[in-house]
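Quick illustration, no need to memorize.
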Amino acid sequence: MKLALTGFVAAATLAMAGTGFAQDYPYRDITTAVVWGAGGGTDTINRMIMAEMEKELPVSINVINQTGGVAGSNGMVYVMNQPDDGYTLVGLSESNVTAAVQGGWDKKFDFWYPFIVGGSPDLISVGKDSPYNTIEELVAAAKADPGSIPAAASGSGSIHHLNLLAIEKGSGATFKFVPYKGSAPGQEAALAGEVALVVTSLAEQAPLILGGELKPLATLTPESAKIGDMVVPSAFDSFDGLDAYLPLKQAIGFAVHASAPDDVKAALGAAFEKAIAGDTVAKWAADNYYDVGGQYGDDASALFSNLEGTFAWTLDDLGAAKVDPATLGIEKP
C-alpha cells in the first residue's frame, strides 16, 4: 500500500509540474537585458525601476547589459530569441525605434509591449579645457573646417546621434561623428579629450557638469535648463533652422514581448504602477533631472509608434536611413 501511495504522489507531482499547476507568474527570477552600456541613462533607469518593482513581486529581477549592433539591435535580438513568458525583459529607449531603418533588424517596434519610466533633454557639452565657451563658437569652428571636430554620441541611430545630425542640419555645421556603446563611454571620451564635444542627456551629464568636468553649451530643446547655479541656454535661441528637426525627446524604460500572456502583462503592469507612484521614483527623478512618464501598454505603444515614425522619417530626410521606412510599414507622421 505504501509503495502504491508513493507512486500515486510521484505521478501527481509530475502531472502538476507538466501543466504548470499553481505556478502563477512570476515564480522564478526575471532578467532584464539592457541594450545600452552600463552607467548610461537606460542602464541606470532600469536598475532603479527594477529594484522598486522587485518590492512588489515575489522574485528578484537581475539586470544585465547586452550591447552592440545597430541602435541597440543586439540586445533586442537577444531578448526576441528568448521565450515570450515574461522572464526576459529588454531595457530600452526611444533610440531603439531606429534599428529597423538602419538595418539592425527587420521588425517594427510593435514587436514589444513597452513601459516608459521617463526621460531627460539632450545637451551639447565640451570638456572643461575646451576653447569653446558658446554653441555659436563651436558651430563657427565646425563650419570653418567641416568634418574636423570629433563629436561623441551613443550608437548610430540613437537619439543623441539624431540630435547631432539635427544640429548639423539646423546650423549648417559638419562634425566628425564618433559612435560609442552608450552615453557613459562617450562622456568619458570627452573628458579624456578624445572628442571635442558630446551629445547626451542632462541627467547623464549633470554630475560631470556640477563637478566641473564638462562645460555645457546648449540644450537641444526649446527650453533652457538649470543645473545648480547655472542656466544652460537653448540652441533654438541661436539657430532658426533647428525647429525643422528638433526637439526629439527621450522615452526610457523596458518591454516584454507583445505576444506575452495577459497575466504576465498584468503582473508587470501592477508592479510598475506601484513603483512609479512611489516616493523613491519621484525623488530619484528630481535628483537626477528626469521627467517621470509612467505609460505602459497601449499608451506607451502609441507613444513609441509616434517616435518610430518621427525618428525613421527624420533619418530618411537627413539621408541617414539604410532602409526605406515605407517598406517596413512605418507611416510618415
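The mean pLDDT is 90.
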